[in-house]
Amino acid sequence: MPSIGTREIVAAVRVLSSGQLARYGPGASETRRFEAELCQKVGVKYALGVNSGTSALICALVGAGIGPGDEVLVPGYTWLSTAAAPLAVGAIPVLVDIDLSLTMDPNDIIRKITPRTKAIIPVHMLNLVCDMDKIMEIANGHGLMVIEDASQAVGGVYKGRRVGSIGHAGAFSFTQHKNIKSGEGGALVTNNERLYVRAAMYHDVGSYTREDSYQSEEPLLVGVNLRMPELAAAILRPQLRRIDAQLSRRRKRRRLIINELRRSALSPTVSPHNDPYSAAAITVYFDDPNVALSFASSRGVTRLIDTDRHVYTNWQSILGRRSAHPALDPYRWAACDAGITPEGGLATLEILKRTCTFNLLPEVPMPAFRMLVRRMVK
Q: All domains of the chain, ordered by start, with CATH?
């Protein structure tokens, strides 16, 4: 089943025919409907549709009160928005290594905490869930906010709970290659009313002028415009209703790959998963990085170090510490020389060199996928 089909086309035409392309106007809002449906799906009280996953992270940080001089822990394997979002609010991203699960190493989190640390952004990369039990235990013990970056794991589950609902807030992305997509788009989810209200004010500079303005005793703050378009919300709604079926297909394909690997002459080890029962992705690792490189020559297989845009060593603007204006440089507010350097996550680089991922292709019919897998692992 294609991710964009008849239902999405009909939804888009409905919005275009109405002439109401912005959230605030006469009639029912597609964005508000999407937010309500997302709350129900994820199991949270509040959802805020925005224009990107980056905006969702920034709004979450604003909502949590993170700002100049604060440090925010981020993993070395993620899209650079995870590290750019703290800089956008004046905070400093601090690099944390991943472990073999391809997610934040809880032991390294502990090593990187300082008196200036205020938040952790664990990232559920490739539909691989973080060890949220340990991360929340660490955060609660140190009084830290946890903002889950679930951009690549919309709908994912960790021990019976949807990702994004476990920390103090969660952020989703709906760009072209995500589980559900609208070209551009994102959402923040939370159970924290104050965090939500502050984020909502920030995402809409004119929030106080709206008929449904947020009723709260929270003082009004100056925001920007990060609103979700009605077209995006409309085509996301039918996809959200199908997300569990899509994830079920991914789980079946993961099991198929594992079974084929057991019968093959190859010797990769299936990477550990923080919730194997709900796993909707699969990676494998090798002792020798060169063997991993050779294995990645198979169609549908990728060695993770070679997807360098998600590796911290390729975050050029962040490594260069370049701001839009020198007076707005967050590092000048830092209490020490904290920040990300090329040498800061060598353990992450070593793991990525030895690890390969499979494209589970949930839109491809199972018989065709089965043939592809057999060619991968022969």
A: 6-242 (3.40.640.10), 243-309+345-377 (3.90.1150.10)
